[in-house]
Amino acid sequence: MKETFPSRSAKALKEWSAVCRAMAAGSQTVLLRAGGIDDPAGKFGFPANAFWLFPTRHHEAAARLVGWATDFAIEAGCAGGPAMIDLLAVVEEVCWLDDEHLLEGLAPLHVLAADVVRQRFAYRQPGITAALIRVWRRQEPHLIEETPEMTGCRSWLDLPHPLSCDGMRPVLPEDAWGERRELFFQAVKAGG
After folding, report:
1. Per-residue CA distances from 173 to 83, 110, 139 (Å)
2. What are the residue ranges spanned by the domains of the chain?
């Protein structure tokens, strides 16, 4: 498969460590985000089509995940020290969903508990950004110390320097990726 990402990237999305673990295992292929303060029109945006996942424990708790995914939170709770950056997310599709009923069809594609998804949907204005994400893993992780500029309640980071995207492999093989991709499009088109 042809590379769908840059040779280097300094852009990173802060994401719960447990969700990063789920994405590394191929158990999550969709991001569900409400709009933040810096997002135009209150809708979560993507400043880049490819970005690193920066694991964080901010707001994270096993109770915020579906029951079968709590092991990801347990694994993430054991991590310490510099952030291990080895997952590159590539955005394939982004949809704004303003029909809460469509969220149920996306449930097999993420590890968030239903009440967390409902809270995100209702945040500020009804609606949520759903993004289909293909995750690539680097054999040798980058280790990044968190600086004061990286802390706080913010989604996007500019890393201190661009990180090499060499040695990347897709987390999911083509057939499994194709199935999850099809499930995403069935779910978001169900209301249309």
Report:
1. 26, 18, 16
2. 16-189
Q: Residue 3 in 3-state DSSP?
A: coil
Distance CA 1, CA 81 (A): 34
pLDDT of residue 159: 92
List strand residue ranges (DSSP E) for the chain, in order.
8-16, 30-33, 50-56, 83-97, 128-144, 156-164, 168-170
Q: Which residue type does 52 have?
A: W
Q: Which residue has the higher pLDDT, 82 or 29?
A: 29
Mean pLDDT of the 75-94 span: 82
Q: Please state whether beta strands 8-16 and 50-56 pair in parallel, antiparallel, or not at all (unpaired).
A: parallel
Q: Structure pTM?
A: 0.88
What percentage of the chain carries pLDDT values higher than 70? 86
In angstroms, the Cα distances linking 81 to 146, 157, 160, 161 are: 9, 18, 17, 19
Cα 92 to Cα 9, 11, 187, distances in angstroms: 17, 17, 15
